[in-house]
Amino acid sequence: MKVKAVTLMEVCGTHTMAIARSGIKKLLPDSVRLISGPGCPVCVTAQKDIDLAIAIAKEKDVIMATFGDMIRVPGTKESLYSIKAQGKDVRVVYSCLDALQIALANPEKKVVFMGVGFETTSPTVALTLIEAKRRRADNFFVLSNFKLIFPALAALAGSRKIEIDGFICPGHVSVITGSIPYEKIAKNYKVPCVITGFDDNDILQGIKLLIGQINSGEQKVEIAYKRAVKRSGNTKARNILKAVFRPADSEWRGLGIIKKSGLALRKEFRCFDAEREFKVNLPKPRKPKGCICGEVLQGISSPVDCRLFKKACTPQSPIGPCMVSSEGTCAAYYKYGA
What we know:
- The chain contains 16 helices and eleven strands.
- The protein is an alpha/beta fold and 338 residues long.
- The two termini are 26 Å apart.
């Protein structure tokens, strides 16, 4: 297939890791450029939200629970990992339900789950909050840093900073959302979208379909992961999510505030809102000196463009979240090479 010069963005951090691990970039002609986008929920969590979690975790009688990657993301002055070393009760959990169980077992403590993730993760948190309400777990709280992927895709497609010819779209998010929401991206911004799975063949098929669309002048949505993704998605999961959360403006690292790209608790579940429960003082957010995670998340820069990469910034001593997360672009480049 004849290929003109194109830039394709893989939105999902799992795709970023899979592409790096398999060496797919080395198989492609020079005319096909793959760049990484803001598909890692740990990476796109804003600095102030990290600082807020740290401040709450330092409050008296608080247990902070979150996913493993989050505890090592540097805040402005500290990290959850560093305050855990100082004796604060910070625990790694595998799900929000684990955090609820900790709350039920420790009624004298306030247990906060710092939640991050996209449409894949947030329905499970919504279910947990429904259970928390049923169990009257009034010592359980959620710090919501959940994101919605489609407002971010629209912001990237409409950006003047970088030209994107096609999106390699996330398979697991699309299991929940279906393919219909991508149709607005393809129609409004004239950017083709292909939903793919995560093995080598899935990704290569997705790239082939995108190039086919670009060469023919089409802009539509295709599913290259039909064994898992349906056009309508998972209606039940979306309804559960909608019952507990509502869209809200949210800050993304590197992208700034994107309207209605986050999730806030509805009135009926506001009693579980950690930000409402705790009034804490926060340091002024400060971008780590020399860190270009924000530019990497927009696809403007590559990890190898960063003067800290593999020098001051490594997985053992990360300076930015893109090196911390198991789905971070910098971590992928460090582990598998550029």
